[in-house]
Amino acid sequence: MIFSEIYSAYYNTAAAAIAAAQKGELTRDALYRIVQKSAFPESYAALSSALEGGKWALIKSDYSTNIKNAPSMPLSLLQKRWLKAILSDARFRLFASDDVIARLSCELAAVEPLFLAEDVFYYDQYTDGDPFGEESYIRVFRTALCAVREKKALNVAYTSRFGRFRRFVCAPLCIEYSQKDDKFRLIAIVKGKRKTLNMKRIQKCCLLQRERGEIPSIADGEKKSLTLELYDERKTLERAMLSFAHFEKSAAQTGENTYRLTLTYDSDDETELLIRVLSFGPTVKVLAPVHFRNLVKARLQAQLSLC
């Protein structure tokens, strides 16, 4: 939270009020609208009294200000170092334009990054991640991202995992990232069904001018529940809470070193969830459902057959 802790909603609200006062546009009603837009509704009483009452000595009683220069929000050294570190991540280029990257690289040229890519080690990440640096991949990703943001339909040329090539029009919903696989996936509606498309397998795609339309209720995947028993060895509990951080969950201690963890997940995430559970080895036991226990058994038997 290195940005919001320094320049939080209160700072942005005060800056907007000062800017409006400098233009002679600040009134009681205008201040209320600024607070509603920049801060939280319940903050109006505290902010308005601090600004109007002169507690902060920024706005005078007639809604003018003695501040001559336009308020600015210069970045701290910590923020600059963090941006420099993120700028070196190959995935950053997927979300930022080349012009933005060039400008940031120039402005942060003399700044030491907060950390380097080699400082982070993923102990259980696959090594065949997406080719984030390839120009073709970047073009596909940016086009898909634009379709998601603008709610446009997308024409896709796709190669399945079995090598089958096909073209289709889809309605993109969102893009998700798997840290374990180090891959991005596009979640979209294809012929009325929710599909997960590996971004790497999208050969080409182009944005269609028409809107994607209303998303049918089938877009939401089936919700399932998984109950695990954790044996807190080798920091299993801490690792599990990090690994399953984005899942809806509840945890309870059942013994001196045992915990019960219940997760709610989307059916489309079942394969990745299975891989994550297996990565904990004997320190995690699947209690329910039986379907998931059978998946674990089948995967372990398949691994044993290779020995």
Could you walk me through the main structural features you see in this protein, from its secondary elements to its overall organization?
The chain has 307 residues and is α+β, with helices and mostly antiparallel strands. It is built from ten helices and nine strands. The protein has helices at residues 9-22, 28-38, 44-52, 77-87, 92-95, 98-107, 135-150, 236-243, 270-278, 290-305, and strands at residues 152-159, 165-178, 183-190, 193-198, 202-211, 223-231, 248-253, 258-266, 284-288. The strands form two sheets. Strands 4-3-2-1-5 form a five-stranded antiparallel beta sheet, with helices on one face. Strands 7-8-6-9 form a four-stranded antiparallel beta sheet, covered by helices on one side. A hairpin with a 5-residue loop joins strand 1 (152-159) and strand 2. Helix 1 packs antiparallel against helix 2. The protein is globular. The protein starts with 8 loop residues before the first helix and ends with a helix.
